[in-house]
Design a protein that fits this description.
The chain is an all-alpha fold and 202 residues long. It is built from 7 helices and no strands. Helices cover 65% and strands 0% of the residues.
Length: 202
C-alpha cells in the first residue's frame, strides 16, 4: 500500500523571530512626527503581524485536515480487511491512537460575518456535509458532486458542470470563507484520489 506523503508546509519556522514587535518609545523627544502618526505607523506594523499570524494558523488548519484525510484513507483501505484478525485489531488501534492525537489539535480562526453571510456559510457547509455523507454509499457520485462544487469556486471550469445552488450560496459568503471552502473541497478531491489509489493497489 502506498500513501502519498503530505506536503506539510512549515509555518514560517517561528512567529516573527527576527522581527520583534514594535514598541512605543515615549522618551523619544527627537522624533519629528506627530504622536498620532507614530502610533498609526506602529499599528500598521502590528496589523501586518496579525495577518501573518492568521495566515499561519490557516495553514496549520489545512495541514491538520490533510493529516485526518490521510489517516482516514489508510483506515479504509481494502488491505486492512485482508489482514488476520489480530493484525487488523493492532493496526486499527494504532490508527485510532494517531487519529485521537490529531484531533487534540484545534485551530480556530474567527471571521466577522453579518447575518446574511452566516446563513450563506451555513448553506454551503450543509451542502458539503451532505456530499461527505454519501461518500461510502456512492463515491463516484460524491466525487462528481465535489467537482461541481469546486467549479463554482473558480471562473475556469476544469471538468463537468457547475452546481448553481452551491455557487449562489458561496457568493454570499465572505472572501475568507470562500477561500476556506475552496481549500476544503480541494482536500476532499485529494481524498477521493487517495481512496481510489489505495483501492486499486493489489
Amino acid at each position: 500500500m502506498d500513501v502519498d506523503p503530505i506536503p506539510l508546509t512549515p509555518s514560517s519556522s517561528t512567529h516573527f523571530p527576527s522581527c520583534p514587535l514594535p514598541k512605543i518609545d515615549e522618551n523619544n523627544t527627537f522624533d519629528s512626527k506627530r504622536p498620532k502618526e507614530r502610533v498609526i505607523e506602529l499599528l500598521d506594523v502590528l496589523e501586518s503581524h496579525v495577518e501573518k499570524l492568521r495566515k499561519e494558523a490557516s495553514q496549520l488548519e489545512e495541514d491538520r485536515d490533510q493529516l485526518l484525510s490521510s489517516i482516514d484513507s489508510v483506515r479504509n483501505t481494502d488491505i486492512i480487511g485482508e489482514l488476520a484478525e489480530n493484525d487488523r485489531d493492532d493496526v486499527n488501534r494504532y490508527a485510532d491512537r494517531i487519529l485521537s492525537r490529531c484531533l487534540t489539535v484545534e485551530v480556530k480562526i474567527l471571521t466577522q460575518r453579518d447575518p446574511l453571510q452566516e446563513e450563506a456559510l451555513h448553506q454551503v457547509n450543509h451542502l458539503i456535509n451532505g456530499l461527505i455523507m454519501c461518500v461510502k454509499s456512492d463515491a463516484d457520485y460524491a466525487k462528481a458532486k465535489c467537482l461541481s462544487y469546486m467549479n463554482a469556486c473558480s471562473s475556469h471550469v476544469e471538468e463537468g458542470i457547475t452546481d448553481k445552488n452551491f455557487e449562489s450560496a458561496l457568493l454570499g459568503c465572505t472572501v475568507d470563507d470562500q477561500k476556506r471552502v475552496k481549500k476544503r473541497l480541494q482536500g476532499l478531491l485529494n481524498y477521493f484520489d487517495k481512496l481510489n489509489n489505495v483501492t486499486m493497489i493489489p
